[in-house]
Write a sequence for this structure.
């Protein structure tokens, strides 16, 4: 059987660069080498794309704080041809060409899961894992996500949108949302730039900090409840996993709790919730997944109050694949192994690509 040339793209210019490297390392370690020939493509922090000689292209892999791309494994910078599945690799004034059959983009955060990378890969006419441009960009933007969810009668927390240069009215925000208030950049993932303000002074400081990461931010009411997550896998007929619960050991499920401190949160799988509540959460997850144009995979995060009221917090279209990430852990509980998850994601990507090729592009 001929192997598929699978380009795994990782790194990127976002603040989640290191987490992307860890996710890529885990994917490459678990993938079925009898089916796929891996082409590791790293994007460094200045935006250059590099083809590496093999999957051992990381230094300090054990540390999410210091992991980085290994320049010793570089085969050279690569260039893409629009409309072509070929890449050109430049190495010491020599050029070689590689074919790409499919792409697994695992670039987290801005420039990776916001639709920009997906649009670029589409222009190359190559199938890729995960949501398309529209679903990626919608789910990356917390404000747009909430507005669409509200329109289809899915509960979300009360919120206020701020843009740079808006005149601030802290007393008004506190009156509407009540303290504590969560302050979030609208377009970042993994809790980057997110803080919980308990005082008026903190609210002002956290608003300033959030604007360092985005030109649009969101203030959210604090929902006192349990943090429940499910994994969704598939295209038009997706499946949804059992629910897991995040029990943060910090003030909330912060970047540090997710990725840096292995003891930053307790992951309880399955979550101890009633079957009828689980069914409601799973049904809401599927409804949101379809309405927000998600494909391939997503992790859907909820709050569950003591009164069993369900709020959808966010949808992550490119969840982490680290050793402590909830997405693969939840599916593993349903007896879908790490390797099988990757296989299914690749098949879903090829399926969607074939569907799109059948759409008419000319009219006479």
């Amino acid at each position: 059987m001929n192997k598929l040339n699978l380009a795994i793209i990782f790194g990127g210019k976002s603040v989640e660069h290191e987490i992307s490297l860890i996710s890529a390392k885990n994917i490459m370690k678990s993938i079925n080498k009898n089916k796929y020939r891996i082409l590791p493509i790293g994007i460094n922090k200045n935006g250059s794309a590099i083809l590496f000689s093999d999957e051992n292209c990381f230094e300090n892999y054990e540390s999410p704080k210091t992991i980085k791309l290994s320049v010793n494994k570089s085969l050279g910078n690569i260039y893409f041809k629009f409309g072509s599945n070929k890449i050109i690799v430049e190495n010491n004034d020599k050029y070689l060409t590689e074919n790409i059959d499919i792409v697994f983009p695992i670039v987290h955060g801005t420039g990776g899961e916001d639709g920009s990378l997906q649009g670029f890969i589409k222009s190359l006419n190559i199938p890729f894992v995960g949501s398309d441009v529209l679903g990626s960009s919608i789910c990356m933007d917390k404000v747009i996500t909430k507005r669409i969810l509200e329109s289809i009668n899915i509960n979300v927390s009360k919120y206020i949108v701020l843009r740079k240069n808006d005149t601030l009215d802290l007393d008004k925000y506190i009156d509407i949302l009540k303290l504590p208030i969560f302050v979030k950049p609208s377009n970042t993932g993994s809790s980057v730039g997110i803080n919980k303000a308990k005082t008026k002074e903190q609210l002002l400081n956290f608003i300033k900090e959030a604007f360092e990461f985005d030109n649009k931010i969101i203030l959210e009411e604090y929902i006192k409840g349990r943090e429940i997550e499910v994994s969704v896998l598939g295209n038009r007929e997706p499946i949804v996993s059992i629910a897991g619960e995040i029990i943060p050991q910090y003030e909330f499920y912060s970047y540090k709790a997710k990725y840096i401190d292995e003891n930053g949160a307790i992951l309880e799988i399955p979550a101890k919730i009633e079957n009828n509540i689980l069914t409601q959460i799973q049904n809401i997850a599927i409804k949101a997944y379809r309405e927000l144009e998600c494909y391939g995979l997503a992790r859907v995060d909820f709050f569950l109050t003591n009164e069993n009221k369900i709020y959808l917090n966010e949808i992550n279209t490119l969840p982490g694949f680290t050793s402590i990430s909830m997405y693969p852990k939840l599916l593993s509980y349903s007896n879908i192994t790490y390797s099988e998850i990757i296989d299914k994601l690749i098949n879903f990507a090829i399926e969607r690509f074939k569907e799109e090729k059948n759409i008419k592009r000319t009219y006479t």
The mean pLDDT is 91. Residues 20 and 208 are 27 Å apart (CA to CA).
